[in-house]
């Protein structure tokens, strides 16, 4: 995903049962992915996600928690939590991404806190499903799902009662504003209203855009409570001078503003990415209508 321009909008993918991109698609773009992570907007994405999550973690006396990161790629989220002393299981189906995560953990001296599992999220082995986790991350998955419900049905039961689920997805509401502000193209902005599909540049893959309003009811039906809607990059993507974001002083001010706005309504509604954090209890019975 790039920051300097909104996504392009091709036709929709073939359907909700379309085959996922092969693992080699993601492994081949590892260098580009790491460059994106190290960009100002990439750093904001991880800093904001971590800050929002940590507000919801209350381990007794600083005790480590057990974290499951579904489709966690090279550990951008997972390793931040491991550095805090938490035990993290990272699941991804791209072996190159997992190898990169292990190497990053080794270099940081936290290899003992990271477990990697090569698996499709929808075909998890018993070594993963046989545990209950204090925290489950679903941060890099929904944009590759036409229908988000199956992924949520995988994630929620893996959270122990009272644990935390963190879900992130690309925000469809941000696209028209991005076209209007960054491209100065109101016609494209108008055409993108309600558009559910885009194309991601970094991995050269089709993407599905969701909204928090669509995901919250699905989470509630699965037993999630106390859902907090946060925004990731509420203003960054609407600032057209990307070069200035590399200036340390400007970036520090931008980061402080992003942190202040992330959970402050109404700003999350037009953020580039939305993050939903919830407690998980007993599943709620859903009556067919």
Automatic annotation (TrEMBL):
Pfam families for the chain: Methyltransf_31 (PF13847)
InterPro entries cross-referenced by the UniProt entry: Methyltranfer_dom, SAM-dependent_MTases_sf
UniProt KW Transferase keyword: yes
Domain Methyltransferase: from-to ranges: 65-184
Top-level taxon of origin: Bacteria
Keyword line: Methyltransferase, S-adenosyl-L-methionine, Transferase
Keyword Transcription regulation on entry: no
Protein name: Methyltransferase domain-containing protein
């Amino acid at each position: 995903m790039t920051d300097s321009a909104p996504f392009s909008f091709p036709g929709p993918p073939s359907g909700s049962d379309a085959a996922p991109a092969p693992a080699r698609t993601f492994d081949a773009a590892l260098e580009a992915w790491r460059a994106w992570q190290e960009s100002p907007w990439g750093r904001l994405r991880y800093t904001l996600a971590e800050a929002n999550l940590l507000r919801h973690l209350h381990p007794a006396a600083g005790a480590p928690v057990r974290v499951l990161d579904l489709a966690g790629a090279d550990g951008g989220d997972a390793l931040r939590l491991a550095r805090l002393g938490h035990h993290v299981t990272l699941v991804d189906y791209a072996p190159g991404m997992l190898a990169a995560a292990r190497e990053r953990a080794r270099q940081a001296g936290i290899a003992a806190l990271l477990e990697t599992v090569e698996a499709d999220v929808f075909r998890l082995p018993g070594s993963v499903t046989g545990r209950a986790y204090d925290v489950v991350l679903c941060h890099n998955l929904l944009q590759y799902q036409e229908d988000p419900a199956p992924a949520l049905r995988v994630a929620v039961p893996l959270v122990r009662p009272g644990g935390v689920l963190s879900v992130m997805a690309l925000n469809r509401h941000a696209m028209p504003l991005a076209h209007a502000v960054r491209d100065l193209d109101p016609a494209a902005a108008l055409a993108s209203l309600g558009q559910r599909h885009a194309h991601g540049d970094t991995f050269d893959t089709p993407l599905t855009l969701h909204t928090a309003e669509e995901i919250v009811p699905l989470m509630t039906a699965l037993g999630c409570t106390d859902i907090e809607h946060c925004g990731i990059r509420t203003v960054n993507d609407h600032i057209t001078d990307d070069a200035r974001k590399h200036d340390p002083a400007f970036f520090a001010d931008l980061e402080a503003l992003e942190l202040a706005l992330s959970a402050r309504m109404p700003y999350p509604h037009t953020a580039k990415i939305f993050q939903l954090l919830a407690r998980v209890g007993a599943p709620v019975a859903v009556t067919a209508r």
